[in-house]
Amino acid sequence: MTSFIRGIAVACAFATLAPAVIAQSHADVAADSTPNRFNASELDLSREQRAELQSALDQKDYKSAEKLLVAEIERDPKSFRAAGLLEFAGGIFFLDGEYLNAAIAWKKSEAIVPLSEESHFTLAMAYVKLRRLDWARPELQKLSDSHTQKALYAYWLARLDYDEQKYQEAIARLEKVTVVDPKMTRAYDLLGLCYDYLGRLQDAILTFNHAVQLNRLETKPSPWPNLDMAIAQIEANDLNGAESNLHEAISYDPHLAKAHYQLGRLLEKQGKLPQAVDSLNTSASLDPSYPDPHYLLGRLYNRLGKAEPAKAEAEKFQELQKATASVDPAHQ
Known about the structure:
Layout: H1 2-16, H2 29-33, H3 47-58, H4 62-73, H5 80-95, H6 99-110, H7 117-129, H8 133-146, H9 151-163, H10 167-180, H11 185-197, H12 201-215, H13 224-235, H14 239-252, H15 257-269, H16 273-286, H17 292-303, H18 307-327
């Protein structure tokens, strides 16, 4: 296990020297990149080891699975056998949230034999999780170049453009993505976000509306198209339309703190201050690390003549802002 740990340490040291990147807009990395159900019977292990590994995986005991695989890998770390075990281990590390370990396992496997398409893509997603867009981009570009009819890879390249504030580049990619896959809801949602950031508000609303219509046809609709459209509608002073979209977003995900926060903003604009306070408190309770509801709550409590709660909310906002900045260099 020592050599594998050493590889992890070296990679960690390198990562600390790398520039920070902006966080992605929506957290759908896991949905795109969760590896297929693992089948230990395909691995070059003894019957007893395969049974032990499969039992650990079935129980989601990823640490035990990782320990078993790393021990076998280190018996002959540069062999074809090790390459297969490393690729398999990369998927387990990813599911376990050990994204750096996953990347190291896949890169070690790739040094011996080419990765499967699925593992190659999940490696790129591990880099996204590690906030290393500069590492993710070349991996996604290779996938996109070799699979031109797969919209997913070009979509993620557009996501990287968006996160790096390259909105024109993202728009150009997304226009091609929607030709390849005209039913890709989130491609239109991201396109709307790009238009919004460029100040093209009406284009954004029209594009969000298309995303909303497609989203309703999904088996599990996402709250994000409605939420993004509502934010643009608030900006355009279409408060009734925004309220309808916010309620629809909350119906899709009642636990989405940002949707309740935006509803609180909207209710304040409508002069419904007690209802706004309720929505903002709901938002704060759903995501205790989210600063924004506390800022607006402080302002509302001031308007309602409640000085002590207003002061407490302002202090809570400042505390959370500092905590966010210390964890996320992009906020500094």
